[in-house]
Amino acid sequence: MGTSHTSSGVRVTVTGLRKSYDGVPILKGLDFEVAPGEIFVVMGPSGSGKSVLLKHVIGLESPDEGQILIDGEPIDGEHIADKYRMAMVFQSGALLNSLTVGENIGLYLSEHRLKTEDEIARIVAEKLQLVGLEKLENRFPSELSGGMKKRVAIARALAVEPQLILYDEPTSELDPLSAINIGEEIYNLNQRIHVTSIVVTHDRDLAFGVADRIAIMHQGEILFIGTPDQIRASDIPVIREFITADFNLKKHA
């Protein structure tokens, strides 16, 4: 699906990234670069370090070694937050149940007094329309399906006009149809606003459906980076096993 296009997204460069917890290495020297406007998918089995990597890119964790650059500037550099806008769509959606959909989406803007109430209302309506949830501002998260909550979480990320969006397992806990809808949402948003997107997932259908390139992680290392076709053609045993695994339990009478 991935196509090249002019982008307002940022370039993300990761070099020599290492992280250990209690002496156990989780990230073992990662190196990769994400081009502006690219949908870059990090795929691998549970426990391979994908979510830990994402926390480093968003700045929630600091590496033991290595660095992450946004358009050539260290992510922990002074004034980096003022220059580049990043947003994360958490695995759970992380919506506040006590707030309406509109209040959730506009929370960052209102808390930091970045816009007037009227401007926030306009932005909320615009972002809801982008994710196909028009006029749901006054609903509460408890009134929404799992797929709708994920789309509200994406709308909230879009409210800050990000140049980089990070998605942590965006299709987890969703039924197959909702998962397809979220995948289409990620792809279509990338086409419309040319944001750089890093998607962490173990959902093979999502990865092959939206990615420009895919990085396969295994036990804290990146085994291979390539286009979906290059990944499918890989003869590396761990990659073959992961992308061809199927539920093959025989039911006996």
Topology (SSEs and partners):
Elements: E1 12-21, E2 24-34, E3 39-43, H1 50-58, E4 65-70, E5 73-74, H2 80-83, E6 86-89, H3 101-111, H4 117-130, H5 146-158, E7 164-168, H6 176-193, E8 196-201, H7 204-210, E9 213-218, E10 221-226, H8 228-233, H9 237-244
Parallel strand pairs: 3-8, 3-9, 6-7, 7-8
Antiparallel strand pairs: 1-2, 1-4, 4-5, 9-10
Helix pairs in contact: 3-4, 3-5, 4-5, 5-6, 6-7
Summarize this structure briefly:
With 253 residues, the chain is α/β, with parallel strands linked by helices. It has helices at residues 50-58, 80-83, 101-111, 117-130, 146-158, 176-193, 204-210, 228-233, 237-244, and strands spanning 12-21, 24-34, 39-43, 65-70, 73-74, 86-89, 164-168, 196-201, 213-218, 221-226.
Describe this protein's structure:
- With 253 residues, the protein is α/β, with parallel strands linked by helices.
- It folds into two domains: 1-85 and 163-245, Rossmann fold (3-Layer(aba) Sandwich); 98-161, no CATH class.
- Helix content is 36%, strand content 24%.
- Helix 3 (101-111) packs parallel to helix 5 (146-158) and helix 5 packs parallel to helix 6.
- It is globular and about 55 Å long.
Record keyword descriptors for this entry.
globular, disordered N terminus, 253 residues, Rossmann fold, 6-stranded mixed sheet, alpha/beta, 4-stranded antiparallel sheet, 10 strands
Report the biggest beta sheet as strand number plus sense, adding barrel if it closes.
Answer: 6 strands, mixed
Q: What's the CATH H-level homologous superfamily of the largest domain? A: P-loop containing nucleotide triphosphate hydrolases
Give the CATH class of the largest domain: Alpha Beta
Helix/strand/pairing category: alpha/beta
Number of strands: 10
Might you state the CATH topology name of the largest domain? Answer: Rossmann fold
Shape: globular
Name the strands of the widest sheet in spatial order. 6-7-8-3-9-10
Write down the domain tally: 2
Question: Uncertain segments of ≥5 residues (pLDDT<50)?
Answer: 1-7
* Topology order in helix (H) and strand (E) letters: EEEHEEHEHHHEHEHEEHH
Portion of residues in helices?
A: 25-40%
Which percent range describes the beta-strand content? 15-25%
Whole-number mean pLDDT: 86
CATH architecture call of the largest domain: 3-Layer(aba) Sandwich
Count every helix, treating DSSP H or I runs of 4 or more residues as helices. 9
